[in-house]
Amino acid sequence: MTLLTFLVIFSTLSFLFFGFSCFFTAEMRTEFIRYGLSDHLNLIGALQIIGAIGLGLGYLFLPYLSIAAAVGLSILMLLGFGVRLRIRDSFIQSAPSIIYSVINAYIAIALILSL
Length: 115
Fold this sequence. Notes:
Blueprint: H1 3-24, H2 26-35, H3 41-60, H4 63-86, H5 91-114
Helix pairs in contact: 1-2, 1-3, 1-5, 3-4, 4-5
């Protein structure tokens, strides 16, 4: 298994988990209240699920879809990092969002270079 394949699988599964968590867990609802984004919980969850599906299926069948999904997820996580900075979360609390942003940016760049 290549690094790229591993990262696509990791990101796809992670965003499916986080996306569905937005709809079904009280913990995620509480976090979005803390972020000041409770009105956008369902939208962000849906974007995460759509991005994960696009990333995974695109990787298997449509590289351009996978690239678009990776870019979208990277931007979504970059915005999430901005929210974490705005509410003054610690580095440890903020790190996952920037790490996921970098992972998905890497996926997009690697896919573009492999075309």
